[in-house]
Design a protein that fits this description.
By secondary structure, the chain is α/β, with parallel strands linked by helices. It folds into two domains: about 230 residues, Spore Coat Polysaccharide Biosynthesis Protein SpsA, Chain A (Alpha-Beta Complex); about 210 residues, 3 Solenoid (UDP N-Acetylglucosamine Acyltransferase, domain 1), CATH 2.160.10. Helix content is about 20%, strand content about 30%. The protein contains eight helices and 39 strands. Strands 13, 14, 16, 17, 19, 20, 22, 23, 25, 26, 28, 30, 33 and 36 form a 14-stranded parallel β-sheet that branches. Strands 5-4-1-6-10-7-11 form a seven-stranded mixed β-sheet, with helices on both faces. The protein has a seven-stranded parallel β-sheet with strand order 12-15-18-21-24-27-29, covered by helices on one side. Helix 2 links the parallel strand 4 and strand 5. The radius of gyration is 30 Å and the shape is elongated. The protein starts with 5 loop residues before the first strand and ends in an 18-residue tail after the last strand. The structure holds uridine-diphosphate-N-acetylglucosamine and magnesium ion. The site of uridine-diphosphate-N-acetylglucosamine (UD1) has 26 residues, from helix 3 and strand 10. It catalyses: alpha-D-glucosamine 1-phosphate + acetyl-CoA = N-acetyl-alpha-D-glucosamine 1-phosphate + CoA + H(+); N-acetyl-alpha-D-glucosamine 1-phosphate + UTP + H(+) = UDP-N-acetyl-alpha-D-glucosamine + diphosphate. This is Bifunctional protein GlmU. Its cofactor is Mg(2+). It comes from Bifidobacterium adolescentis. Homotrimer.
Length: about 475
């Protein structure tokens, strides 16, 4: 992308987003795993603006804090009580000018467009720079333009101004080309253009859109149509949010299918943007692939499986399970109904079966934990088998303790390992053992559990 210097970018995030009917600001709602604000900031940051400003007001502290968490170099600007997108930019420009005179291009973007991407912004910037215009607005054409500002052109097609829905007459309302709320301005043109803004309009707000008309007195203004209409779709309520998320997810699924991944039902398979999937992997219905999850070739995931920042190597199978921050080795077999919490390493050909929960467990190659067990803060060697219903008691109420079990160990059913405890290689344990003390290699351990029989006994109600 040959975008020449962008001196500043201003992201507008001061609005409440009343139509979301939410206790949190609209820009902190999530889309495909990241907030709207995070997504727009990432797209803008990739263009390397000299300064990145985010304008806040509604729950400003919370939005400002979020912005800083996504990019520590952000300049947070507080908008005052005067309402409107124009006022937001006035406040930002005032603060930016305090750091010295701005020259070059300034990008302005609303923050309620979750799919606004770097490619679209870069193309807008290139168009602007090549046109020599003082201002360029990013537009799109919508079947239903209701609610948007309309782009008004003269008979030769030159952009004259933007008219908001609430201020438009019937012929203006008939226009389908709309303002996306993304612009590039020459810094000097912008500074002049926002000076004269007023709030003499249907909403009593300072409109940034009016700055386009004033900019015309300084230099030519233009419009650039977004190549991909989805990239500029705004979200104002939760119905639009769901529809846009669905459309985006379908694209992501189609991308992976074209890369050689089998997705049985794209309608019920949700894949976030940073996921990677190998060829001939099979994703079954009802699966959620989130964060930086990586799935190897020929792996089978689902049905009804959630993977969060998980790594699933080739040929592994993960069925009806929830897996987070866990590495599943090649050809391992997980599920059904397995809960792998953060910090597990499962070796090649290992197994975690039904109703098994693990946390910070290292399971060696070929080791199997097939049924109804909890393994937490534990290291298990290779080719060890854990009997059903076995628990590592890792928590004494204050501290977590570690269990180490060696290789080629046969743990009987219903064992309890009271950590900290270490069991050597080649050990066999009896069913129902409570292992409180270390066990040397190549030994057998069982704990006495006396069986008492009371002959002829009956419950009281039967006596
Ligand atoms: C705005 C545009 C409209 C465009 C539409 C695209 C104006 C006057 N209108 O209308 O032409 O078609 O976006 O979605 O600009 N914001 C602030 N401070 C404020 C008000 C808003 O920072 O005082 C921020 C909001 O957080 C939001 C963005 O500006 O990110 C747009 O505000 P919104 O109220 O959604 O404007 P629209 O009415 O949608
Ligand atoms: Mg809006």
């Amino acid at each position: 992308m040959a975008s020449s210097a962008l001196s500043a970018a201003i992201i507008l995030a001061a609005g409440e987003g009343t139509r979301m009917k939410s206790s949190k600001p609209k820009v902190l709602h999530t889309f495909a795993g990241k907030t709207f604000l995070n997504r727009v900031m990432d797209s803008v940051t990739a263009l390397n603006p000299g300064t990145l400003a985010v304008v806040v007001r509604f729950q400003g502290e919370r939005v400002g804090e979020a912005a800083r968490s996504y990019n520590e170099h952000v300049t947070v600007v507080e908008q005052d009580d005067k309402p409107g997108t124009g006022r937001a930019v006035q406040c930002a420009m005032e603060q930016l000018a305090a750091n010295g005179e701005l020259t070059g291009s300034v990008l302005i973007a609303a923050s309620d467009m979750p799919l606004l991407d770097t490619e679209t912004l870069g193309a807008l910037l290139d168009f602007h720079n090549n046109s020599g215009h003082g201002a360029t607005v990013l537009t799109t054409v919508l079947d239903d333009p209701t609610g948007y500002g309309r782009i008004i052109r003269d008979s030769e097609g030159n952009v004259l101004r933007i008219v908001e829905q609430k201020d438009a007459n019937s012929s203006e309302l008939a226009v389908h080309e709309v303002n996306t709320s993304v612009y590039v301005f020459d810094a000097a043109v912008l500074s002049k253009a926002i000076k004269g803004l007023n709030s003499n309009n249907a909403q009593g707000e300072f409109y940034l859109t009016d700055a386009l008309e004033t900019a015309k007195q300084e230099s030519a203004v233009g419009a650039f149509a977004a190549p991909d209409p989805l990239s500029v779709e705004g979200v104002n309520d939760r119905v639009q949010l769901a529809a846009l998320a669905k459309a985006h997810n379908l694209r992501v699924c189609e991308h992976w299918m074209r890369e050689g991944v089998d997705i049985l039902d794209p309608q019920t398979t949700w894949i976030e943007d940073d996921v990677a999937i190998g060829r001939d992997a099979v994703i079954l219905p009802g699966s959620f692939l989130q964060g930086h999850t990586v799935i190897g070739e020929n792996a089978v995931v689902g049905p009804y499986t959630t993977l969060i920042d998980a790594v699933v190597d080739e040929e592994a199978v993960v069925e009806r399970s929830r897996v987070q921050e866990t590495h599943i080795g090649r050809a391992a077999n997980i599920g059904p109904w397995t809960y792998l919490r953060p910090g597990n390493e499962l070796g090649e050909g290992s197994k975690a079966g039904a109703f098994v929960e693990m946390k910070k467990a290292h399971i060696g190659n070929g080791t199997k934990v097939p049924h109804l067990s909890y393994v937490g803060d534990a290291d298990l060697g290779e080719h060890t088998n854990i009997g059903g219903g076995t628990i590592t008691a890792n928590y004494d109420g204050v501290h977590k303790h570690h269990t180490t079990i060696g290789s080629n160990v046969h743990v009987g059913a219903g064992n309890l390992f009271v950590a900290p405890v270490t069991v050597g290689d080649g050990v066999t344990t009896g069913a129902g053992s409570v292992v409180r003390h270390d066990v040397p290699s190549d030994s057998m351990v069982y704990s006495e559990n006396t069986q008492h029989v009371v002959e002829g006994w009956k419950p009281e109600w039967e006596r």
